[in-house]
Amino acid sequence: xxxxxxxxxxxxxxxxxxxxxxxxxxxxxxxxxxxxxxxxxxxxxxxxxxxxxxxxxxxxxxxxxxxxxxxxxxxxxxxxxxxxxxxxxxxxxxxxxxxxxxxxxxxxxxxxxxxxxxxxxxxxxxxxxxxxxxxxxxxxxxxxxxxxxxxxxxxxxxxxxxxxxxxxxxxxxxxxxxxxx
Length: 181
Hints:
Elements: E1 19-23, E2 28-36, E3 40-45, H1 69-78, H2 83-86, E4 89-90, H3 103-107, E5 131-133, E6 136-139, E7 141-146, E8 151-155, E9 161-165, E10 175-179
Antiparallel strand pairs: 1-2, 2-3, 3-10, 4-10, 5-6, 7-8, 8-9
């Protein structure tokens, strides 16, 4: 019988599709390399974190993602990452080491849900936009895109774009960038 197996190797050059283990205090998560970005590789958690979270406790998108409670939560989560990994992570434009992808990066649509350029090639396969949380199949998860005064965009359990009010708890699937050595 022929089978395909994952093989663990040590390498200096990460390729799209490579997976790494991220050890957090309560659980280990797998993250996949989804886009090369010149000086490093963008990774995305394969599953949502164990607990759903709100973007904001009140139904507001004031200040967008950068002023959201979700951003604060992800900044705190960064401290739980292993120091060895944190040292290799690159800060995004806002200075954070973790972020949520945009609805464009995930689904190839803008804040009005019109098709547009900018979708990450890896995400063009709909199955890669679908994730689970704590054993629950086809969970929905936030993106950082503001849709209206009370709504952020999210990826639904079928891998398509939708929107929800900011105080509704949904899955959180962090992205981070690792610099090349």
